[in-house]
Specification:
With about 170 residues, this protein is α+β, with helices and mostly antiparallel strands. It has two helices and nine strands, in the order ββαβββββββα. The chain has helices at about 45-60, 150-160; strands spanning about 1-10, 10-20, 65-70, 80, 95-105, 105-115, 115-125, 130-135, 140-145. A five-stranded antiparallel beta sheet has the order 3-4-5-8-9. A two-stranded antiparallel ribbon has the order 1-2. The radius of gyration is 18 Å and the shape is globular. The mean pLDDT is about 90. The structure holds nickel (II) ion. The site of nickel (II) ion has 5 residues, from helix 2.
Length: about 170
């Protein structure tokens, strides 16, 4: 859905295209949907891209650094992530059907939180590095080799697709 507005000022015409984003309601534990396994997606089309855009806006508004589709009530294997710092340029990642193909033996510990568990934080130990294959926003197959916060965030979010929450560790 989009709508056009035009306005004239000083002989210049500006056309502004508004793309409507929808902020979705985030589902809070102990809603049983959070314990369900999400289903694989078949392909990336415009409807799915609209959902990705809405999930990103929802995550930024919360604010959070990762959001799985199940957290907005949709049992599809889809994540949005952005671990960029406040002062940095935004760096959104959209991951369809993400799958971990490598986990390092070394581990790291981060304090984790979750938009579905407000005000709940815990130090969680996970593999320090992971490699993830996924389909991107444009439907292309990608591999991501992640370390640090991004690695932890990916593992936390992929857990959501399998009905696992960080409090289970
Ligand atoms: Ni979470």
């Amino acid at each position: 859905q989009s709508s056009n507005f035009s306005s004239s000022s000083k002989g210049l015409t500006t056309i502004i295209l508004f793309i409507k984003m929808t902020i979705k309601k985030i589902i809070i534990e102990p809603d049983p949907i959070l314990r369900k396994k999400s289903n694989k997606l078949e392909d990336v089309d415009n409807n799915l891209r609209k959902l990705m855009d809405d999930m990103l806006e929802t995550m930024y508004a919360a604010p959070g650094i990762g959001l799985a589709a199940v957290q907005v009530g949709i049992l599809k294997r889809l994540l949005v992530i952005d671990v960029s710092k406040d002062q940095e340029k935004k760096n959104p990642l959209f991951l369809v059907n993400p799958e971990i193909i490598f986990r390092s033996k070394e581990t790291s510990i981060y304090e984790e939180g979750c938009l579905s568990l407000p005000e709940h934080f815990a130090e969680i130990e996970r593999p320090a590095e992971c490699h993830v294959v996924y389909i991107d926003y444009n439907g292309k197959k990608k591999t991501l080799k992640a370390k640090g916060l991004l690695s932890t965030c990916l593992q936390h979010e992929i857990d959501h697709l399998n009905g696992i929450l960080f409090i289970d560790y």
